[in-house]
Amino acid sequence: MPATIVLGTQWGDEGKGKFTDLLAADASMVVRYQGGHNAGHTLVVKGESFALQLVPSGVLYPHTTPVIGNGVVVDPFVLLAEMEMLSSRGVDVSRIRVSGNAHLILPYHQQLDALHERHLGNAKLGTTKRGIGPAYADKSMRLGIRVQDMLDEKIFRAKLHTALGHANKVLTKVFNRLPVDPDQLADRVLTECLPGIQPLIADSINEIHAALEAGENVLFEGAQATFLDLDHGTYPFVTSSNPTAGGACTGAGVGPRHIDRIIGIAKAYVTRVGAGPFPTELFDDDGDKMVDIGREYGTNTGRRRRPGWVDAVMLRHAVRLNSLTELAITKLDVLDTFDTVKICTGYRIDGHEITTLPYHQSQIHKAEPIYEEFAGWNTDLTTVTDVEGLPANARRFLDALAKQAGVPITLVSTGPGRAQYLEYETR
Q1: Is the pLDDT reported for residue 277 higher than 80?
Q2: Does the model's pTM come out above 0.70?
Q3: Which residues are identified as catalytic?
């Protein structure tokens, strides 16, 4: 029952989609287990770019079944638009499966998201305003509406009336906005969304377990990343779900004994979107250079990402939280022209040096990075596809990073294209 989890080890945007796509070549099923359309995955295949938000990366392989798991929150309008985009470009979307237990994001969730963010003022979290948080909040409050509810019009309308009974009070009494008419919204969803989505709704748990029991390769794909995890991230500057490995079990309906490989994706540097602590953040020319060369702007939002040197303190913590078996490093080529590259190996807080992540967020805000510096390689890596082609300085950097993290590096990306990578063995 070979099952693999692919997840981010930083604050997202590590390039998970590329390696998920690579590993999906040998998988019969790729399962997205949490998050919503606030996460963008960009795949480059034969020079053609595909920006995905909800559909799992494996959709580009005709032999792979892409599954949107029960832990995902699904905007049905966005899902249909993404399917139409893929279909127009020759991708078969009839293979997609959507868990009947996944929860829906509806327009009032997005309205509430934007209003809450505006209400926070200077304390805002930097959400994407896609309705993710309010949808998960409704799920926790037992006011959520699931994908399967669309299959029974009476239930769907009744649940929408109940949910909006709460949401409309917030919209009208707190934010002085007009209420949302539940019947009009129900008509719109059932007319515009259900016909296209109904054939895809499935008992995802049974389908996943059938594949596992048949000995097929199943790949579990996380969105966002470890330090955006609701429980383990830099709260409250986090997402509303669990991108960590444990989230794959709850968000897809599998037990941990099924998982035998957990791959953590890390950029050769770090970026972050929105507010929150960032010990290695750069405000200098090196940071601007990372953003420019790495095209560090959000796939969905276009927002400029905050750049910084790679943080091994974070990586070690991510290894622990996720029981990582290995690391895959992306965007090594972005550092090709840097004369010096750095790894943060510890923090200095109030005059004390530590090598583990502080549990208290105020300490993280005060953390000063302790760096180990390495000579750059000043070589174009974008055509390198084997270890022998890597400059010695690039290998020294990778080996030092693996040693700091405590797990081997097995894959290295040298460019955005599907073929721009190499298999690596840490020395």
Answers
A1: yes
A2: yes
A3: 13, 41
